[in-house]
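Molybdopterin-guanine dinucleotide biosynthesis protein B, pasting as requested.
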Amino acid sequence: MHTKVFGFAGYSGAGKTTLIEQLIPLLAADGLRVSLVKHTHHGFDIDKPGKDSWRFRKAGAQEVMLAGAQRWALMHELSNQAEPVLADLLGHMSACDVVLVEGFRSVEIPKMEVYRPSTGHAMIHPVFPNVVAVASDAAIDVPAHLPLLDLNDVPAIAGFVKRFLDIA
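Structure tokens follow.
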């Protein structure tokens, strides 16, 4: 897959989801087709107990697809299989210009660290070498090779992502 991939990583409460939510329309306004993969450490379910699709999964279906006039969704039960790696998940996605990735901090893709000192967490870039920039809501010290962007200046962050991926 030749789609450009760019990640956002940081601790819970840093603002990753809000930032990505604000980035998507800016990138789309430039004519880019944007998709997203979000990793969660918590179990999740997009299905409702008692609904047909839930009943099919509980009955043992490995995959259940819901399809309608506005969207379709495919749910795949892992059962006892290992959690899929990002590359495998990307292989299931339709063609687009850029896939934004939330989480997957240890995966070797370029990523921006989203950091708020007020959360009390340490920064992640010393541990995860694929961090190529830091976005923060405070003036903080970062190594000289890492650009520091204002977390509240979403157009500047969008510009950085486009330049970094050479899709400007």
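Note for the archive: The chain has four helices and eight strands.
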